[in-house]
Amino acid sequence: MEQHPGYVSNSHPNYVCKLTNGLYGLKQAPRAWYGKISQYLQFCGYQASDSNPSLFVKKQGSLHLVGLIITSNDATDI
Known about the structure:
Shape: elongated
Structural class: alpha+beta
Distance between the termini: 43 Å
Oligomer: single chain
Number of helices: 1
Number of strands: 4
Low-confidence stretches: none
């Protein structure tokens, strides 16, 4: 193992950092990601489905977003 470029310590060149908790393994990560993407999609005019809150529908167009799959018959919506 070696130190990450830009974080090399001159006083301890052989030291490395040990992560005790993964950055993406946090239980709050999916909730935080959903909160951000949901807020942005609602700002853009999309509404969450009543039956499935991960499905966003834009009433004026035909764009549907499920997870990270975007489909539409209109290229300008995508």
